[in-house]
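Late entry, evening session. Most of the bench is empty. Finally got around to the prediction I had been postponing all week. Sequence below, unchanged from the version circulated by S.P.
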Amino acid sequence: MPITDKTPTRSGPVDKAALLRQHPLFRDLTPAALERLCRYAKTVKYKRGAKVVSKGDPGASMFAVARGTVRMSSPSTDGRAALLNLIGAGETFGEIAMLDGQPRSTDAIANTDCELLVIDRRDLLPFVRDEPDLAMRFIELLCTRLRWTSEQVEELILHNLSARLASALVRLVGRKAGKEAGNGTDRTIDATQQQLSEMVGISRESTNKQLVAWAANGWVRLEHGAIVVLKPDALREVAEREDDDDD
């Protein structure tokens, strides 16, 4: 069967142990436990735009991103979608449905060409039972996801448009680095302006206007399909403003 933009394809060999070891969930596993987990993990490639999972699908597995970016979104009946999150290399998704066995709560779509590790629920749940410390790390991860969601809701209700956009940029860069953005951090966000506008509830036109102004200040650089954050501290100051100074 020919490979298309919607076709998942098996990849060549990857260093599964190195990928899993860099994630907080798995980094403290013993060598024997990590080797066991690697036997369960399957490597799959997706072309940009391919659907990884759909909302309502069975929660039969979780995913770790080896390369690329996956966007998590919730579709509406009229064809629109709310962008909820961007998951980059070294991060995982699909944990909630995998743990509780309920249907997927969002779509997951390859935002770029992606390489993913897939671990089936039937393999991972017995593994977690044998590794009690791992269960606590799953709880911590889910708490982090909940805090992320709470911050997004708070921003949509309380913050002005520029503060919401600045906060999203800073948060995405900080998560990509695994900490607050700092010197030496890769600050490229693989998202279009349309996707950012969907994430923060701002029109595409307002998003572009604000990003162009920040680019003129030297705070960001606009690239095709991506935004590079040059001065995260300046954006952080905007994100922390509480006054509504938008037009």
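Two things to note before I forget:
The chain has two domains: 9-151, 160-239.
The radius of gyration is 19 Å.
Will write this up properly tomorrow.
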